[in-house]
Amino acid sequence: MTHDIPEEIERKLRRAARLEWWSIFWLLTIIAVMYFAMGSSQAMKTAWIEDTLSLLPPILFLLARKFENKPANDKYPFGFHRVGSLAFLLAAGALTAMGGFLLYDAASAMILQEHPTIANVTILGWDVWLGWLMVAALTYSIIPPVILGHMKKPLARATMDKILYTDADMNAADWKTGLAGIAGIIGIGFGFWWADAAAAGLISFDILRDGLRNIRIAVAELLDGAPRELDSTDVHPIVDTLSTELRKRFPGHDVQVRETGRFVRANVVPSKGGELSIGEARKLSSDDQAWRLTALGQQLQDLPDPSENNERSIR
Questions:
Q1: pLDDT per residue over 136-174, tens digit each?
Q2: Structural domain includes residue 229
Q3: Whole-angstrom distance, CA of residue 247 vs CA of residue 252
Q4: Bridge partners (DSSP) listed for residue 89
Q5: What angle do CA 56, 60, 62 make, to 5 degrees?
Q6: Is 269 in the same domain as 161?
Q7: 192 and 131 in one domain?
Q8: 105-110, long-range: CB < 8 A, 24+ apart
C-alpha cells in the first residue's frame, strides 16, 4: 500500500529528521555536562533524567520514519503506518513511568527532610561554589532544546506527526525545567533545604502530566479512535468535514474515520447492511475462528464515485 505524499510534506519531514539528528547531538552534550555538574542536588538529578528521557522522541521519530513507508505484506496487509503510533505510545509510557518515579522521589526527600549540600570545588587554584557550575549547566541545557523545539513545532503541525510534536513541545518547555532547577540550587545557597526537592517535584510533575496526556492520545489511536488533535484529546475537525461530505456523496451509508499514523482512513459502509451479511461472511471462515469477524465495510477506494464515475480514496 503506497501513498502519494506531497513533495512539500516530504521536504518538511526530511528537515524534521535533520533537526532530530541535531537534537540527539546537543542532548548528548547536555547530558554529559549535567552529569559532571550534578553533585547531590535532587533538582539537578531530576533535570538530568529528563534530559536523558528527551532522547526517546527523536530516536523514535527517526525509527518510525524508517519503517512507516515499508510496503504492506501478507503479515501486515495494512502496511506499517501505525509504527509511529506505537512509538508515540512507548515514549508516552516512558515519560509517565519516569515522571511518577521522580515525583515519588521528590516527595520522599521532602517528607524525610533531606538536606542537600553543595560543596566548593577547586578550579585552576580557585575555590568555586559548585552551585554556580550547576546554574551554568542548567542554563546551557535550556538554550539548544528551546531553539530546536520552536523550529520543530511548525513542521510537526504541517506533517501531523505526534512524536515530533511531543518532542517539540518538550523542547520548547525546557526553560521551565531549567528555571525550576536554578531556583532549587539558589534556594540551597540561601539555606532553604526544601527548595531543591520542591524544584524536583515541579519538574517531575510536568513530566508526568505530559506523559499521561500523550498516553490518552496514543491509546485512542491504537484503539481505532477518531483522529485526535496534536496537542489534545479533542477529535480533529477532519472527522466532521469528511463525514459530512461523504454522507452527501454516498447517501444511505455510514462513515467511519480513523487514524493510522499521520494518515486518515475513511470507510463507507451501508447503514442497513451490505451485500454480504456478517452471518454469511462468518460461514466463509473456519468455525472456531468465525467469531473474530465483527464488521464488514468498504473502503472509500472500493466504492464508485457517483459524480466522477471512478475510484477515489481519502487518507
A1: 999 999 999 999 999 999 999 888 888 898 888 878 777
A2: no
A3: 7
A4: none
A5: 125
A6: no
A7: yes
A8: 105/42, 105/46, 105/200, 105/204, 106/42, 106/46, 106/197, 106/198, 106/200, 106/201, 106/204, 107/197, 107/201, 109/42, 109/196, 109/197, 109/200, 110/194, 110/197, 110/198, 110/201
